[in-house]
Design a protein that fits this description.
The complex is a heterodimer. By secondary structure, chain A is mainly alpha-helical. A two-stranded antiparallel ribbon of chain A has the order 1-2. In chain A, helix 5 packs antiparallel against helix 12. The longest helix of chain A has about 35 residues. Chain B has a single domain, classed as MetI-like fold. Chain B has eleven helices and no strands. The chains are: A mainly alpha, B mainly alpha. Chains A and B meet through helix 1, helix 3, helix 5, helix 6 and helix 7 of A and helix 1, helix 3, helix 4, helix 5 and helix 6 of B.
Chain lengths: ~300, ~260
């Protein structure tokens, strides 16, 4: 890039920026800052504003925020009607509660399956460690949609699991696994497991082996050492991993749509149907705003855990 | 956590991770239309896939979107990571930290809906973007992919020996030259890995693309989803196998690059 920094157009640009009083440093900060302000933060304000509008049959399908009154003055039209509607209808309340429940149960399962794997990898010698780590990450790189789809072939009445069990004579008739909450738990645990394992692994590799030895020398059994030393010290990893699973799982749409039954209620699915089915943009926006409030607290918690990790 | 319990739990975990994918690949070579009953080896579904114009068209759209999103995301994510690791104090630092990591966990339905509403409002007030399609999907994907690139670039920038940059400065190089001649070559393998991750994430996204795309711009996951909703179909198995194969090769290259760069420094 020598040629670039010495080239005439580059010098010209630098000279012009100097004239305008913009330093290179400001410009470097401004590019990611502006992009994220416009395309990440601003959309939430638009979302909030449209959640206060009313659905109409027009393009766009919602009422404007300002309207000219009869005397030419600007009037603000905003109402909390959509939020009142969400509160009054038990469908939405149940969908929020059931999303939290499903996300919570899935997170616990992901922790129970992910912790031993992370622990084992963190204790493994090289190069076994790198290979195992790659094996954990590999499925995460393959398509999310296709990984959920793979479970459809697995869980169906004439799917791999039922065929195997019936072939072995363990069961006589297929077990209904597809279109149940159970299938949704499996789908979430399966697709988000690497998000649980990686922060746990990062935390457990830093664990000082001398502490475990000391506990052992003082007469603690491996079990006691694990619960009194390893587990408490890995708490930041547990929090980070759990949040990385829990937060996106709350708003999950694809997994309940493909693996869940008609009565598997999740708020991401309700929002999708409200938007694509009923075409009610303002109610969909209100659903999203309430969901946003649900995930803000866990996101802040995650950030604080990560900031502390960076400082140490 | 000793003795037989740990290896058993780990083995179970890996079977859980890989069994569904392996069965997907195996059944893509199944002659029978009944996806889970073995009817002999065949590549017939691959042949059918190649004649499916809708899938091929959607795949082309997805590849274009993924290429541009990954490239833009790498530029923005790297700049963000650079700013956060090298500039200790500036206005809005906390805001940038939050905005660059929040897209990692933000539920996709929220991101998708809010971006769509932004695009609609912008079109009404500014006249841009006119309609929705490739451009709006690329913008949306760039935004959430940049977060992933930033995480990878940040960890690489933190590990990097800053005395290299100091030495270059002491020898009289300006900040731009230091970045392009010292910092960039050192973090390049991480950026390649970040680009590949962004590429696969974009290729994979269904929810956000469904919200921000317009008529005529259906990405591959959108087409797959509409097929899969009706049930399991063997040509989707064949398509999945091809995608898994491509991703496997890409990941191995990225892993090798990362490994090599870690060794060098």
């Amino acid at each position: 890039m020598n040629a670039l920094t010495r080239s005439a157009p580059w010098r010209g640009t630098a000279w012009m920026m100097g004239k305008l009083g913009i330093s290179g440093r400001t410009l470097v900060i401004a590019i990611p800052m502006l992009w994220l302000l416009i395309f990440f933060l601003a959309p939430f304000f638009v979302l909030g504003r449209i959640s206060l509008a009313e659905a109409i049959i027009a393009r766009p399908p919602y009422t404007p925020l300002f309207e000219r009154g009869p005397d030419g003055s600007l009037e603000i039209i905003a109402s909390l009607e959509n939020y009142r509607f969400l509160l009054a209808d038990s469908l939405y309340r149940n969908a929020y509660l059931s999303s939290i429940r499903i996300a919570l149960i899935s997170t616990i399962f992901a922790l129970l399956i992910g912790y031993p794997i992370a622990y084992y990898i963190a204790r493994a010698p090289e190069p076994k460690r790198s290979i195992l780590l790659l094996m954990v990450i590999l499925p995460f790189w393959t398509s999310f949609l296709l990984r959920v789809y793979a479970w459809m072939g697995f869980l169906r009445s004439n799917g791999v699991i039922n065929n195997t069990l019936m072939g072995l004579g363990i069961i006589d008739s297929p077990i209904q696994m597809m279109q149940t909450d159970f299938a949704v738990y499996i789908g979430i645990v399966y697709t988000y497991l690497p998000f649980m394992i990686l922060p746990l692994y990062a935390n457990l590799t830093k664990l000082d082996g001398a502490l475990l030895e000391a506990a052992g020398d003082l007469g603690a059994s491996p079990m006691v050492t694990f619960f009194t030393v390893t587990l408490p010290l890995s708490l930041p990893g547990i929090v980070a991993g759990s949040m990385l699973v829990f937060i996106p799982a709350i708003g999950e749409y694809v997994i309940p749509a493909l693996l869940g039954g008609p009565d598997t209620l999740m708020i991401g699915r309700v929002l999708w149907d409200e938007f694509f089915g009923s075409r009610d943009w303002p109610v969909a926006s209100a659903v999203a705003i309430v969901m946003l409030f649900l995930v803000v607290a866990p996101i802040m918690w995650l950030q604080s855990v990560q900031n502390r990790r960076e400082e140490s | 956590m000793r003795g037989w319990f740990l290896p058993l739990a780990v083995a179970f975990g890996f079977i859980f991770l890989y069994a569904p994918i392996i069965s997907l690949v195996v059944f893509s070579f199944n002659e029978s239309r009944l996806v889970t009953v073995w009817g002999g080896f065949s590549t017939r579904w691959y042949g059918e896939l190649l004649r499916d114009r809708q899938i091929l068209g959607a795949a082309w759209i997805s590849l274009k979107v993924a290429f541009w999103s990954a490239t833009l995301a790498t530029i923005i994510g790297t700049l963000g990571a650079f700013v956060l690791t090298r500039f200790s104090k500036f206005t809005g630092r906390l805001l940038l930290t939050g905005m660059i990591t929040a897209p990692l966990v933000m539920p996709e339905v929220i991101t998708g809906l809010s971006l769509l509403l932004l695009f609609v409002s912008m079109e009404l007030t500014l006249g841009w973007p006119a309609g929705r399609g490739l451009t709006t999907i690329i913008i949306a994907h760039t935004t959430f992919c940049a977060a992933f690139v930033a995480v990878i670039a940040q960890s690489r920038l933190r590990q990097m020996d800053e005395s290299l940059e100091e030495a270059a400065r002491d020898l009289g190089a300006g900040p731009v030259r230091v970045f392009f001649d010292v910092t960039l070559p050192v973090i390049m393998p991480a950026l390649v890995a970040g680009w590949l991750l962004a590429f696969t994430l974009s290729l994979d996204d269904l929810v956000i693309a469904s919200f921000v795309s317009g008529p005529g711009a259906s990405t591959l996951p959108m087409v797959i989803f509409s097929k899969v909703r009706l049930g399991v179909s063997p040509d989707v198995n064949a398509l999945a196998t091809i995608i898994i194969g491509i991703v496997l090769v890409a990941v191995l290259i990225a892993g090798w690059l990362m490994h090599r760069s870690m060794r060098k420094l």
